[in-house]
Amino acid sequence: MEKLLIAGDRVPTVSGQTTQLIDPATGEAWMEVAAAGVEDVDRAVQVADQARAGWRRVNSRDRTQILLRLANLIRENREALAQLESRNVGKPIRDARDEVDLAADCFEFYAGTVNKFGGTVNPVAAAGTSLTFREPIGVCGLIAPWNFPIAITSWKVAPALAMGNTIVLKPASQTPLTALRLAELALEAGVPAGVFNVVPGPGSVAGNALVRHPLVRKVSFTGSTEIGTQVMKLAADDIKNVTLELGGKSANLVFVDADLDKVIPKAMWSVLGNAGQDCCARSRLLLERPLYEEFLYRLSNEFKKLKLGMPLNDDTEIGPLVSFGHRDRVQEYIEIGRKEGATLVCGGNIPAQTDLEKGAFLQPTIFADVKPNSRIAQEEIFGPVVCAIPFDHEEEAIAIANNSFYGLSGSIWTQDISRALRVAKAIETGVISINTGHSVHLEAPFGGYKRSGIGRELGLAVLAHYSELKSVFIAD
Ligand code: NAP
Fold first, then answer.
1. CA 291 – ligand 1 centroid, Å
2. Bridging pattern class, strands 29-34 and 18-22
3. Is there a single domain that holds both residue 232 and residue 321?
4. 73, 183, 237, 247: least CB-packed within 10 angstroms?
5. Which residues of the chain have pLDDT under 70?
């Protein structure tokens, strides 16, 4: 049984409650994990609060070294972490390896920021000297989702530690394993006991208790817009500093001059990566009318060639969805699409292969002739489902792309650089890519407009979200 990690020790919960993990590829019960309750969260937060003074005193050179050691330990444990992540989430092992690499790179990047992000001297009119200090905020309550567990956890933990904060992390109930292992590696790297605590448990109990706890000064949440709304309301009670990374319904805008040989495979993976369980998935495919039929014909041929399979097989391209419950939810959306009158071009069913029949697999699916205001075009499906919509001119494409509550990511495919920049400026989204389906660069800020979130992760921008700014004035 996997226990909590509090004050450097693996401990059971007060209540003895556990969560049973199910292997999404086989449907078999796999592992039990301690499920933290309110008392456990309280204990972890008290411990993190007591650890603040010591961690803050660790000088910048030593803190840098500790984070670099952690990056190296992640690399040394790459295969074990990747296998854990692959089996827990159901993602193909080669994608899990990339995710572990991203986590290691993230700690390395933020190790380098520890002694480069400080205060300023301000040219005030008054007689004296004005300085600003960057100070840690205090205990950070970090809440992670299940789709990229170790990567998204690292995006929060690395800058929080770099800025001298202490942490209580609540991973998603279904995918807590790599977070627990990461916290053990942090101890090995020299992060003092109590600085980084992990409390897996149900969001409605452990997550709720963490957000409400008066000693938690910062909440960084990644998950659905629905739960993010609740988190923001709860955090408002004592004016906590909040970062929200929420859902998306991003658009791929493909113009008639795009190079289809290059676009089709990239556009496909910009939706099907992680079996579509990606907040940045470009699940709305906006195609300029003259290429609409050809594009969909060729894209559906590519979809049919995809290799669905067991996550730990090296040649698997698409694994199962994270759980059977989530597959049911995605299938409900496929049914909604049919009822809304969209044309099912391919997929839509549970695959017939006998080796996959026990897992939460689903065929990659394309809907064509989707109406921009229909539910499947507006709501986040979070599965391997593409909604294709034709457009006749640039202004119409922009209007369709912006017809969304969300504003997280998106791509523009064209060889006309002026058009690419004009459209990039017009789209209301936190991240936009030109001629690629890639959204995340550790060195650049990442986050959403509108109901996709508040604040930014990654880049240097996130450091401001994990630090307080103090003004000091010394009179002449
Ligand atoms: P979710 O259901 O909102 O859960 C996210 C996390 O919040 C989990 O750890 C969950 O715990 C916890 N939680 C649930 N209820 C809570 C409450 N009342 N108070 C505090 N915490 C609570 O999201 P998910 O299904 O794990 O992840 C998918 C969603 O995340 C999608 O909408 C996706 O777009 C979004 N996402 C966004 C980004 C981004 O960077 N913008 C990145 C990845 C994913 P349990 O696991 O116990 O429910």
1. 37
2. antiparallel
3. no
4. 237
5. none
